[in-house]
Each structure stands twice: as C-alpha cells, then as structure tokens.
Specification:
disordered C terminus; globular; Phosphorylase Kinase, domain 1; Aminoglycoside 3'-phosphotransferase, Chain: A, domain 2; alpha+beta; about 290 residues
C-alpha cells in the first residue's frame, strides 16, 4: 500500500481522522465521535510520523503512528522506504502476543486499537508517565541504585520467551519456513545493512571513530556480522525485534516497568541482534548482572 505525501496526517488533521475511527476506540473514555481532541506531534523519531492524541474532556490519550513511503526525517524527496513496514510491525506484535500470553502481553506490549492499512496508520496505547529508556540511561546523575532491576530483568524475560519460542532448533520445519519468509523484511533489513553495518564505519569522521580501530581485520568481522544478519546461520535464528535498543523501549523508573515499541525492523535472524544494538543496553545488562 502506497502512502504518499498527500496522505500524510498532521497535528491539524489527526483529530478528525481519529474521530472517524471512534468505533475502534470504545475502550478509551473520551474518544467518541463528539469528543474534542488535540494532537501533538512527537519529535525525535526518524522513520515515521507520530502523535499523542488527547481528549479534552477526559484527558485520556492514545498514540498514533503513520508510516510514509519515505523516511520521515528526510521528507518525501529524501530516502524512499516502503510503508509496508507498518504491516510487519503489527504482524510481529500479533506473534508476540500469542507467545507471551495475556499477562506478559499486557506487561510488555502496547494495546493495539486499530490498524488502517489504507493509510498505514496504527492507533495504540500511549504510555502516559513513561519515557524513552535512551533518555533515562544517559542522565549524568544516573547511578546503579536509580535503575530498578525489574526493567532489565523484564526485558530479559521478554527476549527469553520470544526467542525460545521461535528458535530454529526448537520449532517445526514448517514454522521455521514461515517465519523465515514472512519476516524476511528485506527492505528494512537493507536499511540496517547500509546504515548500521556499513556507512557508520566507512563514512565516519575521525572524531566519530575516536577509540575505534577501523582496520581491515575489523571490517572483515563486520562482513561476518552482515552474513549472520541476513540469516546465513540457519541453525541459530529467532524472531527478533530487529532494532532493539534503548530508543525502542519505554520505561517508568518509579514503577520499574518497561514496554517494547517500534519493531518495524523485525526479522527472523540471529538472537544476538537483539542484545547488541547499542552500548546503553550493555550498560543495562551490567546493572542487572551486578545484582
């Protein structure tokens, strides 16, 4: 499904769009067709358009995300990207939901209210009181005692359950074939190969490479990682989030809770992909194992 520039929602058009789909939001008080809504764009994301939509009557909120046929931060004339990534995101949420069961689903995943394939838009739970784990972990004042162990152990539980229930050595050949094909996600995998595994090393400045020896041997290891990422290790594959870093986790520190978001880069790939995305996750893991 093509979502072109003329179809892109804005803070001004989102309220009317949400009211049009009010029948899908009966469980959220204040989102009926006669309620007054306000939409605020959420900045900081690179790929999609995102909004917090609030009911003026009840102050309740929902989250709206739309996937255009391009990288949002670059605009329509920038980097092209299929909007079908939103379908992949919904598909992996559905897979996880079945694996986790009702209790863990509610604990780690957002409620999905509606998916509009025509506009590649999803209406889901807005995590009021949560913030990106990325922002929390880089606070200068953050100490080991400030990060509840339940956030780290919870993310470990989420990965442990979803990885174990999809590992290529533990499932049938039929199931493995389905996951391999359905979650190949080649357009998004190609983006990761280009930007995460290639450009960041070959086109970085000396300042960006400070402390890193980008030698021939190092780049050879990167090529090995790329081979593993595209699924050549057929006996060690799981259904991965695919972009699992602190910017893909919402956390509530006072309650010690974590929610997993933005799995549009999902792939059936090596399990190490989900535990090695960014240094901050290593910091979080160190906190967990220090206890």
């Amino acid at each position: 499904m093509t979502v072109v520039a003329d179809s892109i929602l804005t803070a001004e058009t989102v309220p009317a769009y949400v009211q049009k789909h009010a029948d899908k939001l009966k469980d959220v008080d204040g989102f009926g067709p006669d309620n007054t809504l306000t939409a605020t764009a959420i900045v900081g994301g690179n790929v999609n358009y995102a909004f917090c939509v609030r009911s003026n009557e009840t102050n309740n909120t929902i989250f709206l995300k739309q996937a255009p046929e391009f990288v949002a931060i670059f605009g329509p004339d920038g980097f092209p990207l299929t909007s079908d990534r939103m379908q992949q995101e919904l598909d992996v949420y559905n897979e996880w939901k079945k694996m986790l069961g009702p209790e863990l689903d509610a604990q780690y995943l957002p409620k999905i209210y509606h998916f509009d394939r025509m506009c590649m838009t999803v209406l889901m739970e807005f995590f009021e009181g949560y913030e990106l784990l990325d922002h929390i972990l880089v606070r200068p004042t953050l100490g080991p005692s400030d990060m509840p162990e339940t956030i780290a152990s919870g993310l470990g539980e989420f990965m442990g359950v979803t990885h174990a229930k999809t590992h290529s050595t533990l499932i049938s050949e039929e199931r493995k074939t389905y996951l391999t094909k359905h979650f190949e996600n080649k357009p998004m995998r190609d983006v990761q190969l280009e930007f995460v595994f290639t450009k960041c090393y070959k086109e970085s400045t000396e300042e960006q490479r400070a402390g890193l020896n980008v030698s021939e041997a190092f780049l050879k290891e990167i090529e090995l990682l790329k081979e593993q990422y595209v699924g050549k290790c057929e006996n060690n594959l799981v259904l991965c989030h695919g972009d699992f870093h602190p910017g893909s986790v919402m956390a509530e520190v006072t309650k010690g809770k974590a929610k997993v978001i933005d799995p549009e880069f999902t792939v059936y790939g090596p399990p190490g992909l989900d535990v090695s995305q960014r240094p901050q996750f290593l910091m979080l893991s160190s906190h967990l194992f220090s206890h």
